[in-house]
Automatic annotation (TrEMBL):
Originating species: Paenibacillus bovis
Residues at the site labelled Influences the redox potential of the prosthetic heme and FAD groups: K84, E396
Similarity comment: In the C-terminal section; belongs to the flavoprotein pyridine nucleotide cytochrome reductase family.
Residues the record lists as binding NADP(+): G276, V277, G278, L279, T280, P281
Name of the protein this chain belongs to: Flavohemoprotein
Function: Is involved in NO detoxification in an aerobic process, termed nitric oxide dioxygenase (NOD) reaction that utilizes O(2) and NAD(P)H to convert NO to nitrate, which protects the bacterium from various noxious nitrogen compounds. Therefore, plays a central role in the inducible response to nitrosative stress.
One MF annotation (Gene Ontology) recorded for this entry: heme binding
Amino acid sequence: MLDTHTINVIKSTVPVLETEGVHITKRFYQTMFEAHPELLNIFNHANQKQGRQQVALANAVYMAALHIDRLEEILPVVKQIAHKHRSLGIRPDQYPIVGKYLLQAIQDVLGEAATPEILDAWAKAYGVIADAFIGIEQEMYQAAEQQPGGWEGFRAFTVQRKERESAVITSFYLVPQDGGELASFEPGQYISVKVHVPGQPYEQIRQYSLSDGPGQPYYRISVKREDGDDVRPAGQVSVYLHEQAQEGDVLYLSAPAGDFQLQRQHGRPVVLISGGVGLTPMMSMLRSLAAEQPQAGITFIHAASNSELHAMRRQVEEIASECPGLSAYYCYSTPTELDRQNAVFHYEGYLQPDWLKEMVPNLNADYYFCGPLPFMQAVNTALDQLEVPVEQRHYEFFGPAASLVASGK
């Protein structure tokens, strides 16, 4: 536990962390990777280049400082990050490395303002926070390994089948190379895939949501090919999987992880809202809900540009045909003329609160949403306008956590 003086010193740094946090985390990653390039085998290079990881870490450090006297209030965030750490294979001996370069970055950016007193307080606080992560992650490692069909680290899986779902999304059906038992998972969870892309100096690890329900003899991931543009670099792993990974090839997977899970205890109707490849965890949830409560109220809403980029429609309609309690609706932002002629969508444009209200007969429901950040911000804004309680909203970011409040609002 931290003493009162240390807590007060940490809290005194909150204003400067709010303004200088991203500068500190940029410096942190720069110096750490220079000294320990082997850590580039773990971190997502695309998120580093886009600055998303630096912003996410800055927000986490800020929240830790803000709640340093009530760390239990950020426990849900700690557990969310711990799931990712376990999935990536983060080890306890890596925490001192992070602590060293984080303190160095604070000193580098703040200069004389980073007094010995402030640095000492942050060293103590980091030790407490690191111990909390290590303890939680140790429990997660044990649970992942000791569950039926579980394993430690990364396990070899064979690509049993590769199936195109849309112009940009392809599914991979993965089975254990050793023929052993397959660990179950909660709908909404993900696995990490570790690959060595030819021509690249480091291994790369990416998380992909499991896109089919539990209980199958395989894991299925459905990957969007990220070709990149003038702003974003191409996704090296997604392009590799689309272009080079073939049936019969071997991929290395961590056991399922993640806290984006169905909250079954409330008994409320469920609304699943997805945009683009955010469809993947929703498909797993939809499969499970349809099997568990086919008569109950389930609303499935998917937003895509048009039918060419709309993945898994046939699968959703097959589920709907056997699930009387399911209503499925599609929102197209840029439908083709053929889409309009065939009336294959229910709403044209971007998802709006009024239309969402029409599609959801009982607003007192649990809402799960996932997709690109602007889409998630739009959904969250719509739920604000519909006065849906925050505790009935459940979501997951693809990549580092970000704000659900759009800039400028």
